Amino acid sequence: MNLSIRESNPEDLDQYTNLLQRTYQDTYMDESIGLTPDCFSMDIFTNEDTQKYLKSLLVNNNLQKNWLAFDNEKLVGSITCIIKNDDEAEITGFYVYPDNQGQGIGKKLYELALNFSENRDLLLDIYVHNTKTIKLYEKWGWKLDRNRGDSGFFFRHWPEWPDNLEAKCQYMKLTRNS
After folding, report:
1. CA-CA distance, 109 to 13, in Å (whole number)?
2. Of 82, 85, 109, which is closest to residue 95 (Cα–Cα)?
3. Is 5 helix (H, G, I), strand (E, B) or coil?
4. Span 90-129, pLDDT tens digits
């Protein structure tokens, strides 16, 4: 593997869209709750609203950084860290292709977000059926954030999903500044 990590730029949107769409389908699909491949289709990821949102994650400034990990020229991972206030930052858009997991890519991206957020507490939300990733976060010291949502939980519904489909999610927090 020839790994390189750099900050994103707007020209990365197509590769970033592809990374997220494929990772969502591989990681978040759960037909037992109605999350079929169609829920994370390329059509959804390339619609105007989704593209606008994804483009906003590629912005880098004093309050937000997005890093991309490449194996040669192929985008294999990403992480976005957003400073919320003096005490908190949020991690979003943290993905590594399943074929590239277990190679230390996620750990390197995570360390960049930790450093950028300084000593702020870190927040994130995650689908509860993504147990493998939840266990990884718990290993890194994250805990269920019972002070947000309904005792730490909420339901997500994308506008493109069937009306009655909601996926249970949980808020997590890494306390660093107590």
Report:
1. 18
2. 109
3. strand
4. 999 899 998 999 999 999 999 999 999 999 999 999 999 9
Would you say domain 3-174 falls under CATH 3.40.630.30?
A: yes
CB 169 within 8 A of CB 50: no
Question: How far, in whole angstroms, is CA 177 from its chain's centroid?
Answer: 23
At a CB cut-off of 8 Å and minimum separation 6, what does 55 contact? 10, 13
Whether residue 60 contacts residue 66, with contact meaning beta carbons closer than 8 Å, is answered with: yes
Output the six-digit token pair for 163.
């009306």
Domain ranges of the chain: 3-174
Residue 105's CB: how many other CB atoms inside 10 A?
22
Q: Which has the closest alpha carbon to 66: 18, 121, 109?
A: 109
CB atoms within 10 A of CB 177: 10
How is residue 23 written in tokens? 């990772």
Mean pLDDT of the chain: 95
Which of 109, 100, 41 lies closest to 76, judged by CA? 100
The token duo for 115 is 């450093």
Nearest to 104 by CA among 64, 134, 76, 75: 76
φ, ψ of residue 118 to 5 degrees: the values are 55, -130
